[in-house]
Amino acid sequence: MKTLFDESNIGKLKLKNRFIRSATHLSLAEKDCHTSEKLLNAYEDLAQGGVSVIITGFSHAFAEEQPAVKMIGAYDDKFIPDFKKITEVVHKHDCNIIMQLAYGGSQSKLLKAKRKIMGPSAVEHIFTGIKPIEMTKKDFKAFSEKFGDAALRVKKGGFDGVQLHCAHGYMLSQCLSPYHNRRADEYGGPIENRARIIFETYENMRKKVGDDFPILVKINCSDFMGEDGLQLEECKVLCKKLAQMGLDAIEISGNVAYNENSPLIFEKKISRDKSRQSYFSKYAAEIAAEIDIPLIVVGGNRSIDVMTDILNSTDISYFSLSRTLLSEPDLINKWKEDENYNPKCVACNKCWSLKGNICILNR
Ligand SMILES: Cc1cc2nc3c(=O)[nH]c(=O)nc-3n(C[C@H](O)[C@H](O)[C@H](O)COP(=O)(O)O)c2cc1C
């Protein structure tokens, strides 16, 4: 029987257990996107708390496209010393750290007049009302180059891998969605075309970081929007292709929340009801059955018995967590002591604050 505390490998990365901190924007960097004492302390707490890998909050590869305040920049070599500070503090505690790279696009309202906001098509965003500039083929080419350059910086900064954020309705997720992507050229239409920019970006990152540096992708199993969004069968096609191309692992999330009749990224009321936990796992299990690279599932992972059951009844290998680790960065150590320990997080979704994305129990 497999256990959550088994040791394993993702590419050359050694994992001491199957728990991963899913990318979580902490909003603790300096305003100029450099690191801060508070951010370093937060990563050190997580590293000491027992997870095998930390995936950082999203970081931007374009200077002119910052989707959130107080995030770490990845668009210039001037950030490499910051990366080194972060990775050194984490590596002291037998923990790995992977940087997530993202392009926000029309889903983020931050400084909308100042940002250059591009998207697959000029379709107004339902929530923000922002209409992005439709990307040209030249823009797509520049996009993959910039992400490749940022991935190389991540490697030079001592990170153990890099993750491309293709989930949650941000720009790369929009490329996959027929609602946002109305293109008639080779970047629109069938899933192989809508995913082209992801394949090209992956290739550019791989070319620059080399074969032995782990590259991961985070993606929605489905947007749960019917034919307007990415669908599960299409996600399988995309994951299979990425696996063939040499991707090291895939993290499965879901739902851009236009439709309430499906699990949401930030599902509530899951703390007591185990049947509602690990809410993307049934979709992730279908994907895992069709690919031969490790699969991580995120979303409502809160009970050792629920996760152990999934681990032993599906091909899912890893469990990533976000909100529970905001309230208790040492949750994994607590679970190691007592597998019946109940996380304090009640999924109230009040994690966001102007003073940093810190759990209300810890402010
Ligand atoms: C404060 C906060 C910030 C987040 N930032 C990111 C991010 O930068 N990138 C990302 O892919 N997901 C981000 N997420 C989503 C989480 O990674 C995760 O997918 C989601 O919270 C569901 O997992 P959970 O039930 O363990 O919280 C964030 C979540 C929270 C609560």
Report what the structure shows.
With 363 residues, this protein is of the alpha/beta class. It has a single domain (8-337), classed as Alpha-Beta Barrel (TIM Barrel). It has eleven helices and twelve strands. An eight-stranded parallel β-barrel has the order 3-4-5-8-9-10-11-12, surrounded by six helices. Strands 1-2 form a two-stranded antiparallel ribbon. Helix 1 (37-48) runs parallel beside helix 2 (80-91) and helix 3 packs parallel to helix 6. The chain is globular and about 55 Å long. The structure holds flavin mononucleotide. Flavin mononucleotide (FMN) is lined by residues 22-25, 57-58, 100, 165, 167-168, 218, 253, 265-266, 298-301, 321-324, 351-352, 357.
Looking at this structure, what is the CATH superfamily? Answer: Aldolase class I
Task: Sketch the major β-sheet.
Answer: 8 strands, parallel, barrel
Distance between the termini: 40 Å
> Would you tell me the overall average pLDDT?
95
Low-confidence stretches: none
Q: Examine the secondary-structure arrangement and name the CATH architecture.
A: Alpha-Beta Barrel
Biggest β-sheet: strands ordered side by side in the sheet: 3-4-5-8-9-10-11-12
Structure in a nutshell:
This protein is of the alpha/beta class.
Notable characteristics:
two-stranded antiparallel ribbon; TIM Barrel; eight-stranded parallel β-barrel; single chain; 363 residues; alpha/beta; binds flavin mononucleotide; 11 helices
Outline the fold blueprint.
Elements (H helix, E strand, L loop, with lengths): L7 E3 L2 E3 L3 E3 L15 H12 L4 E8 L19 H12 L4 E7 L15 E2 L13 E2 L2 H20 L4 E6 L4 H6 L14 H4 L1 H14 L5 E6 L11 H14 L3 E5 L27 H8 L6 E4 L5 H10 L4 E4 L1 H5 L3 H7 L26
Parallel strand pairs: 3-4, 3-12, 4-5, 5-8, 6-7, 8-9, 9-10, 10-11, 11-12
Antiparallel strand pairs: 1-2
Helix pairs in contact: 1-2, 3-6
The protein binds flavin mononucleotide.
